[in-house]
């Protein structure tokens, strides 16, 4: 026996530090790359090894626990089973990784059945986003605890699992508590970060708006979310969903009741009911006469019946204050990065995951390239043998043994030993002409694949595109809507409260660059002048769409695929008149193949207005504006489209308004937006026919005549409002609205204008009044701002007057009306008024 003297203090410090790091790395903290602790990783890997895929039958949980204990995780069976159960509980895990069959516990904190009774298998999400590519050498493997098995250090996750499902753990001297998030929002955030790596944390919160808990509920305010995302630590106030209802029980008069339908995350329903009953018995809450748990398989429902003289809102506020119906989630965003615990903000979480995905895809591509090259190497040898078939057969027949034949093949045809061995193993049926052509075809396919894989390894943008494609596919398969609603807390200052509600112009170019400018950037000019104060874009880009609105408006972006996205006006980056703008894909998760074709500003979704949509093929429909109030970060379907059709124009209207549609050949049709002509349809409907077009004609414009404008036109005759007709060649006129008679939808319409120059065509039809200000924009980005009464009034048959002199290669692309806003006008015009006084 050898006795080594040592200092007790040093030994205790060293041993305790080793123990602490062992607990931190080996048990309590998740890895930022796949978001899993070792026990979860080993459970999923063990189930993968057992072949427990979602298309296979369930197997006993005891089998999984025993396999994991014996091979990878030598700890107690209860610890492993509890970890497995949590991955299968839909009230604990936002996106389930294990599909459980049997009693896996409840939100009442009931324990699960014993592992010998319950069954499980992997979910499709776990198989396809965590365990896919595991055999493609994407991650490193290490020996298990006794060296008899190999286990992965980390799983090749395709989604940021740590933010997706969150994590909680207590180590030695540190702890982690990360909330779950919505899959679609995380994908949008990753896409935005790929497009612009310089995004700040606050800019990322446009996409990742906040935690999304499996039990739903609400989050009060955004201050706690922002603190957690920017510093790694923060307190998020969660509140259950409770509504005040009037209930009627048999033989009893109507009573007011508080009905709880959603609970804060990790709140036990039975404990909540017990706490409420305790407060009632202690007379700390007055006004409650009965509590009933009416929850069933359809959902949670706790009914708190109130006394006759109780004030429901007061009772509910007391429940929020005194019970877990309102509680806090303490975020502590701690995770292992390169084996060391680190406190991360939102951007660091996403960026670290993207770096890991780049490594995984690079290793997977190298693996596939090596396999393709090895296979092609064999095919090249077989093609050489087929090209010299008679000589190869004679050489093999003359050889004494296999080794001699192999050596002679290598020497005669300059083959490798692997190729020679493959030729010797070639079956006689592979020598037919058909099989030879198949070998040649496979060789050509492999050459294309090898070139493509090599290109992926040489170009970072190809890897980024693969990451984006895999994320989009995951969102399409597994994405869902948010369950947790984020509401503004009382007294909390919103971003909009800090920004003046000015009028602004939003410009979007054909190349997808967007910017906003104050309306007063553009001085009013007389017609037929060149717009020297116009907002010129780059020489190789042209303005494709523009609107005027206010900073606080919600701006809806409709794409040609019929999908709508939303931003607040002030979220659109401001720019100068000569600035290029910001790529819209950095602001919205718009796929590359989609293009914004219409922009609509909305101040209030609570109105009874509709959105009228018109497609290029001529289908038109109206949908209630309220249907677009709850926009998702990844967009909403606005209209159902046929193959080859695309959404082109969207306008806001009421049922009493008139719709005006114009074609490129100068025809126009007017019809009512009421239920007789255009009944309201849902978001996914296609619509009905709007206008009969002549051969080679197509729709180019749509606008709305409000019922007030129509009544004013009928009362005042030719004193307005008018239809502003503008051609691409720079000619325009105002036509009395009475000259466009109302027709039934689907007709040919009437002539809106005649053209002065051959090849000219209609660019826009807009309903205007004499006091309204107009902004006319050209393809080169030149903008003219002027009053409507500055444009000549003429009949439908006239050709109009020149409203803007254009460069030889320039055309007019659109007309917008400056919105009327007393508040914003005062803000925008104040500097001009001061200048005039001086």
Offer a quick outline of the entry.
This protein has 19 helices and 40 strands. It has 838 residues and is an alpha+beta fold.
Structural overview:
This protein has 838 residues and is of the alpha+beta class. The chain is built from 19 helices and 40 strands. The strands form twelve sheets. A four-stranded mixed beta sheet has the order 14-9-8-17.
Any key phrases for this structure?
about 850 residues; about 30% helix; 40 strands; 4-stranded mixed beta sheet; Topoisomerase, domain 3; alpha+beta; about 25% strand; Gyrase A, domain 2; 4-stranded antiparallel beta sheet; disordered C terminus; Topoisomerase II, domain 5; 4 domains
What structural class do helix, strand and pairing data support?
alpha+beta
- Percent range for β-strand residues: 15-25%
Determine the N-to-C terminus distance.
100 Å
CATH superfamily of the largest domain, by name, is DNA gyrase/topoisomerase IV, subunit A, C-terminal
Number of H/I helices: 19
How many structural domains are formed by the residues? 4
List low-confidence stretches: 524-537, 821-838
Shape: globular
The biggest sheet amounts to: 4 strands, mixed
- The neighbouring-strand order within the major sheet is 14-9-8-17
The second-level CATH architecture of the largest domain is 6 Propeller
- As a percent range, the share of helical residues equals 25-40%
CATH class descriptor name of the largest domain: Mainly Beta
